[in-house]
Predict the 3D structure of the following.
Amino acid sequence: MTQSQTSSPAAATPPALPGAGSGGDKPIIIRTLGLCKRYGMGEAVTHALRSVDATIFRGEFISVLGPSGSGKSTFFNMIGALDSPSEGRVLIDEVDVAQLSASELAFLRCQKIGYIFQSYNLIRYMTALENVTVPMTFAGVKPEEARRRGMGLLKLVGLENRWSHRPIEMSGGQQQRVAIARAMCNEPKILLADEPTGNLDLKTGQEILNIMQRINQERGVTIVCATHDHRLLNICDRIMWVRDGRIERVEARHNLKITIGRIGGEE
Amino acid sequence: MKPIIVQDQVRLGVGRCVGLSLSGMSYRMFRSMITVSILALAVAFLSHVLCYSLLEQSTRLRAYEELTEYRLVGQWVTRLRSADTPAQVQEALAASDLGRVAEYRRWSGASAEAFEGARETAERLDALYAYLNNLPLTVRGVVLGDLDARQILQGAQNPGAYETLMSKLGDLNLRMPVEDAGALRSLVQESQPAMWAMIESIRQGHARAIEEVRRAGGGLDPVELLATSPPQLGRAIEQAGFAIGDEAESTLRSLKSHAQRLVDVQQLKPLLETSSVRAAMARRLSINPREVDLTRTINWLRNESRAKSLADELVKQDPRTELSATRLLALAESERKQDRLESIQGTTEPRARQGLLDLPNWTRWLVLVSFLVCAIGVINAMMMSVTERFTEIATMKCLGALDGFLLLMFFFEAAIQGLLGGLVGVVLGVGLAVLRGWITLGTLVFPSMPWSDVLTGGALSVAAGLLLGAVASIGPAWTAARLAPMEAMRVD
């Protein structure tokens, strides 16, 4: 067991945080320092992220807003340790992700972070319950225990009756709920959602948002949600606007003036 | 709240891996079946080529062996009918054919010294024949003219002819492979006549031996004698001076069975060529009687009812005819078998028993090419089935799968598919090879089946399929597993 609690020297002086007013007193869970990501080579190089310094507090619900191609998905992948940055660092609980071994990364993804994707990414050949129990299998939970916990989670998302259905036999909303149950199965500290409502209609999207809100409030899970969906603004604690690979602004929700059809300065 | 503590991920057992592989395969049954089919096809092709060539080879060898037995009967019949020709005797003496030399020594009635001298002369003359026959074509024409080496040297017993031959050789600056001129002259003009005299006495001895055997056999023709094979025949043959070998009993038994066939052929063939048979056949085949020949008749005699109808008609025409349907049919079948054996054996004499790794060159090429085709097919199928699952690999990684676990999972899938495809393919390939062999080579395939080679070939094909499948799927799976999850997802 490698316990990596040492904070990096650069983390000693965290940069000034815009919009930190609401959560300044809370402990930090994710921090990025000068995060850059470039795709491609030479002339065709794309700068997806240009030196992003972001801070996410423990237990908060933060929305990352931005138009397509603004780099929010890239940002999401970076803080989820799903992709490696070109430059800069990602610190999850003050542990530099780049310094973790493959096995430790797997542990982090399996036990400490839950992921929800726009396209659900369920495994096609598994039933709902099997999909939910996969991360528990990877975590070494015994099959009976995994099934018991899996059924509990399906109940939480209201799918206990569909446990034996395969993804192809379920609607998008149902698939996304299975994905949430899967993300939650090892009781992660962080839930990362990449456009969770992007492929869903309004009503189903609302159900997903309600579930996420409940998880945030009842279990104290930190949720980072990249989204287009303005309804998220009603439930999140802070909003981060991303544009051209940079953080444009970060605002606590109660500081925003919400108007019909227009929220803050966005769009 | 407790801080996040990062530790090593749990390692999972092989069982979980196999379970996941199996459930994945059963869900993608159709895709898996296609992959397995491609594998099976490739392995079937490979094992078919391998197996068929092994089968063909051993069947040809078998046919050759059976034909050799037929030939042996012919040889014995000839030797029991008439004495060997002088050239045959001389050749056997020169080649030191042990069995023959012993026979000839007995028949010659000469002293051991004289016989040994003649044998030596035969050997030395044989060297001269070889020398003359191996001269360059134009030179040979000048020296030999229309004659062959044996005749020229026989003629050189006459001093005049000897001088002519020597002057020709001298003009061409050629020299016989003998120590000196005196030795050559004494060989050709003194030893040679003695040798021919000895050969003549050997032939007379042979003729006497034939007469003895005939008397012992009650005056029967050698073929019939061998076919009936009376109990004292072996002893009579041996007493007459023939070398029948150590296994006289079994030799006689195999000679007997083949000789019976020869008797039938000798008796029935002329009968089948009579005008009455031709007319009967012409009516049945509705062709001109002149076009009826033995081959047609034998080919027509395929079942009992046909044989019976022909035999009945012939007996009705001439009640003295000793003919039965079974004999006719047996004759036709044995003739057909002989033909088939000859066609299987092919024009060239098959090499002695060949193993799996000693295939003829063209077969080796065929196997190599079919292996390449097999490899490309399998690699393509496997790579496709892995590449289309990059998203799944990425998702698994997001959920905390270790690289090794993913690799193991794909390895098992490839191994199971490879094994399944390989087994199906081998059964298919070997089955088809046997079937093809049966059709093209006849039932002779079954007794001459080289089981151990076929099984080894089959096992090799399965192993090749398995290995290719594993390597082909491990490659891309390794690439995918090593990528960061999101990079793997982007590959799509």
Summary: Chain A touches chain B through 49 residues (CB under 8 Å). Residues 202-219 of chain A form the longest helix (18 residues). The longest strand of chain A covers residues 28-39.
